[in-house]
């Protein structure tokens, strides 16, 4: 299968749409504590969905997992474990900053670390990003993406300074800029570990291809391992919060609309998983510059989460100048996906 970078960009946009949208169904959960609906949705995200879709699309999934070298399994799991800290604090970021500002700040760090560290660690930074025309286009796209994230973050900061306290609390009930900024910074750095976990899964992809799995689906078994690590972190933290808040009983308590809450949590969970379902497919289309998928993913997430923020009126009372920054940020991020896609196209054409 020859790489098709523009098809890959489309798949990454779909993944970004899923990621930028997953927190929306949680708004339909009534009465449950954060740890209850986070874990209920997370069981779908990190366990049920990845193993189900991998089993459907992978030939001999269990054999592929069993053949995975111990070091590879442990490395993917460990980076998933570290990513889990970013994943659980992403939920807290949404609580304190809202979808627009929280996503921009957290994913700014995540985009920079997740895209640039893998080629640096492999000693391939110059070879892949500086020594070829296609690499320079991709590097330019990364820089454009970071510029777009900075613009989006500046718009969010301006919105925070312009909105009256009462209106902030109305649109984001637990708005706290100082606390949210610290959480988002930690979240972004740790979330980049997901990219490292995927990069370490090369032997798993080779194994699943040997078993006859179509190249488009080769990344699904890697997701099972990385997300198992993420589940571990989130499960432990949720249990700690349950014990602290005495909220274990919420899962079965008749005082809550249980069917509704489980349905909305499961919807959020499956939507969250689809971001990496499409990501793993999109990565197969990017050729030798597969690491640039992370930039496309981050840019797409911020675009769609910002649009959701507009829909939910998180930008009410923002000045016209601030709104111009919002749309400039979206336009810059869209441009970054085009530039990165073009760089990958040049790289594929040169092969």
Question: Can you tell me about this structure?
Answer:
The protein is an all-alpha fold. The protein has one domain. Helices cover about 80% and strands about 0% of the residues. It contains 14 helices and no strands. The longest helix is centred in the N-terminal third of the chain and has 52 residues, at about 70-120. The mean pLDDT is about 85.
Sum up the structure in keywords.
351 residues; mainly alpha; 0% strand
Write the SSE topology.
Blueprint: H1 5-21, H2 34-57, H3 61-67, H4 70-121, H5 125-129, H6 133-162, H7 165-171, H8 177-191, H9 193-199, H10 202-210, H11 220-245, H12 258-283, H13 293-311, H14 320-350
Output mean pLDDT: 84
Please report the total strand number as a whole number.
0
Helix-strand string? HHHHHHHHHHHHHH
Shape: globular
DSSP summary: helix tally: 14
- Strand fraction equals under 5%
Low-confidence residue ranges: none
**Compute the gyration radius: what is it?**
20 Å
Estimate percent helicity. over 70%
Helix vs. strand class? mainly alpha
Distance between the termini: 13 Å
User: Total domains, how many?
Assistant: 1
Largest sheet: none
């Amino acid at each position: 299968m020859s790489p098709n970078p523009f098809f890959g960009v489309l798949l990454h946009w779909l993944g970004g749409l899923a990621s930028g949208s997953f927190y929306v169904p949680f708004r339909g959960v009534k009465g449950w504590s954060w740890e209850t609906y986070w874990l209920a949705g997370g069981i779908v995200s990190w366990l049920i969905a990845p193993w189900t879709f991998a089993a459907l699309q992978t030939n001999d999934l269990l054999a592929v997992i069993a053949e995975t070298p111990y070091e590879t399994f442990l490395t993917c799991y460990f980076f998933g474990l570290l990513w889990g800290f970013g994943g659980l604090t992403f939920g807290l970021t949404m609580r304190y900053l809202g979808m627009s500002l929280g996503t921009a700040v957290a994913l700014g760090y995540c985009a920079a670390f997740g895209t640039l560290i893998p080629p640096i660690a492999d000693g391939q930074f110059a070879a892949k990003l500086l020594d070829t025309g296609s690499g320079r286009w991709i590097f330019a796209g990364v820089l454009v993406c970071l510029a777009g994230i900075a613009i989006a973050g500046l718009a969010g900061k301006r919105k925070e300074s312009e909105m009256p306290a009462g209106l902030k609390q109305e649109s984001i009930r637990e708005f706290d800029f100082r606390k949210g900024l610290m959480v988002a910074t930690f979240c972004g750095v740790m979330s980049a570990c997901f990219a490292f976990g995927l990069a370490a899964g090369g032997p798993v992809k080779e194994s699943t291809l040997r078993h006859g799995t179509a190249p488009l689906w080769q990344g699904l078994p890697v997701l099972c391992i990385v997300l198992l690590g993420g589940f571990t972190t989130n499960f432990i933290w949720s249990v700690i919060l349950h014990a602290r808040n005495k909220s274990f009983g919420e899962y079965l308590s008749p005082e809550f609309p249980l069917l509704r809450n489980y349905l909305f949590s499961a919807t959020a969970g499956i939507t969250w998983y689809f971001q990496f379902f499409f990501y793993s497919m999109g990565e197969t289309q990017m050729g030798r510059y597969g690491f640039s998928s992370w930039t496309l993913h981050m840019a797409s997430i911020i675009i769609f989460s910002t649009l959701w923020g507009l829909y939910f009126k998180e930008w009410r009372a923002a000045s016209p100048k601030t709104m111009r920054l919002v749309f400039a940020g979206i336009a810059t991020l869209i441009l970054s996906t085009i530039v990165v896609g073009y760089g990958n196209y040049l790289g594929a054409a040169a092969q």
